[in-house]
Amino acid sequence: MTVGWNDNTPIYRQLKERVVGMMLDGILKAGDALPSVRQIAAEYQLNPITVSKAYQELVDENLVEKRRGIGMYVTEGASEKLLATERERFIREEWPAMVERIRRLGLNVEQLLRATSPGGPGLAPGGSA
């Protein structure tokens, strides 16, 4: 499997974000084992130290736990904790820029809701996309 890594962000952070995404998407649930460091290193052609660093950050944030001699496992409540943290971060860091862009473009709530509803007519005046 080939993975495109972003040159602007350390690989361990990108790997950590992929695991976090899997937790948020429900792919990894409480009690699930993470693939071993060696398995991920071999599959993605990474240095095992890089994988270990990503996993250690997850342990430091209490999202996964090390079970000596067995592996790494997703902790109880990890998804809920992540969801709360990601919501707060989104509102604090991303939402203000979106609101500013919406204002600049002169969009209103009805247009935004219409554009995001399944089969909605889009943003064009008169209700056609």
Q: Extract low-pLDDT stretches.
A: none
Number of strands: 2
Fraction of helical residues:
55-70%
Net shape: elongated
Q: How would a crystallographer describe the biggest sheet?
A: 2 strands, antiparallel
Characterise this structure.
Helix content is 55%, strand content 6%. It has a two-stranded antiparallel ribbon with strand order 1-2. The chain is built from 5 helices and 2 strands. It is elongated. The chain starts with 10 loop residues before the first helix and ends in a 13-residue tail after the last helix. A hairpin with a 3-residue loop joins strand 1 and strand 2. The chain is mainly alpha-helical and 129 residues long.
Can you summarize this structure?
The model has no long low-confidence stretch (mean pLDDT 89). The chain has 129 residues and is mostly helical. The chain has helices at 11-24, 37-44, 48-60, 78-105, 109-116, and strands at residues 64-67, 71-74.
Question: What is the fold's blueprint, element by element?
Answer:
Elements: H1 11-24, H2 37-44, H3 48-60, E1 64-67, E2 71-74, H4 78-105, H5 109-116
Antiparallel strand pairs: 1-2
